[in-house]
Amino acid sequence: xxxxxxxxxxxxxxxxxxxxxxxxxxxxxxxxxxxxxxxxxxxxxxxxxxxxxxxxxxxxxxxxxxxxxxxxxxxxxxxxxxxxxxxxxxxxxxxxxxxxxxxxxxxxxxxxxxxxxxxxxxxxxxxxxxxxxxxxxxxxxxxxxxxxxxxxxxxxxxxxxxxxxxxxxxxxxxxxxxxxxxxxxxxxxxxxxxxxxxxxxxxxxxxxx
Length: 209
Description:
globular; 22% strand
């Protein structure tokens, strides 16, 4: 098992529990609530997007340590991760932590008795539903880069704010409360590369939606 029982619960969860969250640049003010939620739900890894406002001068790293986590990110990066010291950190290969030179992407590698797990985190350009072809091509290349890195590991989990709609029911605009009517199947989206050997975790766990 990757995760032993947490002190906050009598129930063990012998699997990797990941929380993905776009902080919308609120991390300096929301970190305390996030950490409490993570501990209450025995989260091993938190992948965060829009984390660029969290850094020297306003980052409470002491609070993170008190909650049993370590913060991993590059300076001024839009992506970051929090890993649980008592679980994930014990099998982390820190020398394999990677930050993309071209995109808002990062990965960490876990090694559990020779089985490697790539955990990726990415933030894609906004408005991809209506973006120009050159912008969509850039997003596709960002996905392709992550997909290529996943091939060197036993397993891979890719989390992101994709900023693109692929559900057949599309999305509702908060301003108009009407459907945008721009649905794209996953295979014709910028995320087409993942159709080869990845499973949509949300779709898998919520087949009724």
